[in-house]
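User
Take a look at the entry that follows and flag anything odd:
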Amino acid sequence: MSFFPKCTFQYFLDGGPELVPGERNQGRLVLHVPEPIERAERLLMNLRTEAWAGYGSGKNRRVVRQQLLLIPLRVDLPPGGMPAGRHEYPFHFDVPAWMPPAFDGNDCGIYHELTAELDVDWAFDPVSKLRPVVRLRPARGRRAPVILRSPNGFHESIVLEVSLDSAVVAEDEPLSGKIAVRAGHEARWDGIVLVLSRMTTVAMGHGDRRAQDVSSVRIPKASLLSGEAVPFLFPPDPTNVPTFGSPQLTVDYVVRVEVDIPWAIDPQIEVPFTVLPRGSEVSGEGSELEVGGARLRQMAHYVAQQTGLSEGKSPVIVRGRQGAVDFWLTDAPREGGLGVDVSLVFPGVGVDVRMRPLGVLDGFRESPLLPRELRDKVLLRVDAPEGRYARAPLGEAELHAILDGLGRADAVRMTDHSLEFHVPTTDDAERLVELARFVAHKAEIVGRVLAKLPFPTALEAHRAAWESAAAERGAFLVPTGPHLVGMPIGVRTLGGEERTFVVKIGTEWGGKPHGFIEISCVAAPLPGPAAAMLEGQVPHALLAPIRGRLTSLAQEGPHTVRGHAPEIFDDPRAAMPTVDALVAFWLDVRGERRVDAPYR
């Protein structure tokens, strides 16, 4: 007999070429012996599973190995060894349910090895090794949409939003989602790179986490500048294995989102998801979570429904009006974090308001006009024109009422006609609803403060006329001007359209004090030739009678006309014939005629 006996091995598994954990896997081992092997003593067979991870390179290279499973089988042969011919041996393995699948990761992995050896005395033993495929049993899962935003500090200006249609997918299913750039379009970057990456945690070594990129998608900057969502899709990859965990190695998956910034470290976030075994049933319709502009519109619609405010046009979330105060909330991420800019605009109160952030040299200065929660943030000074009012229009009580509750704002700015502040937020819709309600209440408080301001001493005798005009016309009176604001004039055209003009009659004190009239209609912009007619370059019959009442008349944008009177209005009702003439001109120049009866 030769020292190198000849023998070939064949493996036949009853369930096909795969081993299934948690089941008894049966099969047959067939040996083909061309000539007798007299000293053959036994047939050895085993199933072995091993995890490994490499560290270092070159002479410092080392490989850590741990055996997860060893199932030995042994068949003793009868005296006389193994005769020539075909020999068949049935076998079975009870594979434990926890057995992980085989995979090759980033210098680490798990493999399964089926070994058959014919033990021959005083000879080299014939050996055969096979790497069987271990296929996990299909599981059940539910589709779970997920959305993730870049955290604060991710980038000085860029804010990303990423959604996955489902964070649970089967091994043979594609992964789809959407991405949008919420802020930072003006920053320096070239595009967004999405990488589907298999992550392996090597618990048996140093506990390090190793990435193995499977596929990637690059979206250029030009496709993301609109702020709208851009869809992406990763097709199933044959090298993928299901998500699993073991004491030695743990495998999970992420979509890594990187901002491609030239000559800089690319900031990135990870969106985790779960991969179930091939053939798994993932139930549920799921839902597509909106990101970017669509998400902002969705939030604006919800906030408007919950608060009764008007839905704004992006980036404005909602807007409203309380008396003489117009207010709106604008989406305004800053320094990589979500936030909202709040603006409240009201008629000028006739005082000089100077507010600025508190500087280093201002550390020992304090303004008693401010609520305590703002004294370490801003410095405020207010000066009223000397002799114009019997008392200071904006004193400590008025300013405390206006500025109270703004401690959570990280920036506050106030003038004599506006209040603006920035509030860091999350994407929680309920928190936005709470903020919108706070702002609406704040506008109501500002309106009450404006209504109680003093009249100019020179016009105190005419207070009753201004108050009566406000009551008759449904306008709001700001005494410090005095101004009548928000006066509505509604008309219906012969075409059945409704036009609402908003009128402001007020006082300007710069230089020679005089009155002014301002009329606007958002729904009906003036045509191009109207500007020349208003300025007197082109005559118009409806404007001729009011030329003597005004020192100037001009168009301010497509929706507003403003005229100045030579003197202060003692009674604003005296300006109404001029207002009616301007409304008639507005309709005429647009080719519209009003119905005789006013719209109610």
Remarks:
- The radius of gyration is 40 Å.
- The first strand starts at residue 8 and ends at 13.
- Residues 8-134 form a domain with the Immunoglobulin-like fold (CATH 2.60.40.640).
